[in-house]
Design a protein that fits this description.
Helices cover about 15% and strands about 45% of the residues. The protein is of the alpha+beta class.
């Protein structure tokens, strides 16, 4: 298992930390899925405004299904999710506790068929970069509370990438993740603006793991950086 840690800053002020544990051996045996664990929490001044921490995991059951679990606290209120996703049918919500006390949305067999959890979008992008050296896809996400689409596209110049590849240099893939068709909740950060996006840079030297994040949030631009050992 390899662990990757990231620090997020607003200007020079720390606002959050993210830790991701990848099981590389499982990832290599199953190209469509990686068993992973992740943890994220706010820090610094943002923690005073939004005290948030959560731990989660993705675990494959077979080539046809996987479990997404999340356990955390948002402003002191418990949130917990346990959802089983399938490759060819709608997911099953096994447990859902929301920090605001709302009930989960009703799963629609047709609308929610082939949907994924939000974190699988990142890891499937990594797998596509490994196999195709590109990031280009669309994902329908249903997280138990919302439905939305994530469009992934490569921003890098392909010619420059091929040139770097021939010189055996570290190739940095710059990918944009655009969130659209959000079922919005008023004043529910960060789901309170249409057409949100997240820019992520991936490094071939790190087996296509992220090295940088960038997003515009209600508090301004936030940048996440990989913390090397």
């Amino acid at each position: 298992t390899n662990e990757f840690d990231y620090e997020f800053h607003w200007s020079y002020i720390p606002v959050a930390k993210l830790s991701i544990k990848f099981n590389e051996s499982l990832s290599q045996s199953n190209k469509n899925f990686s068993d992973v664990e992740f943890e994220i929490f706010t820090q610094g001044p943002l923690k005073l405004l939004r005290d948030y921490s959560s731990q989660g995991s993705l675990k494959s059951n077979s080539s046809e299904s996987w479990d997404y679990k999340l356990y955390g606290h948002d402003r002191g209120e418990l949130e917990e999710k346990s959802i089983r996703y399938f490759n060819y049918k709608a997911p099953v919500i096994k447990k859902f506790i929301d920090d605001a006390g709302v009930l989960p949305i009703n799963v629609d067999p047709n609308m929610d068929k082939n949907t994924v959890d939000p974190f699988s979008v990142l890891f499937r992008t990594i797998e596509q970069l490994k196999s195709e050296q590109r990031c280009q896809n669309e994902y329908n996400v249903m997280d138990g509370k919302r439905r939305y689409k994530i469009i992934v596209e490569l921003i890098n110049d392909i010619e420059d990438l091929e040139k770097d590849k021939n010189n055996n240099k570290d190739i940095i893939f710059y990918c944009k993740f655009t969130f659209s068709e959000l079922q919005e909740e008023k004043n529910k950060w960060p789901f309170n603006r249409k057409d949100r996006y997240l820019d992520i840079w991936f490094s071939s030297d790190l087996n296509y793991k992220p090295v940088r994040f960038f997003s515009k949030t209600p508090i301004g631009s936030v940048v996440g950086q990989y913390i090397s050992e």
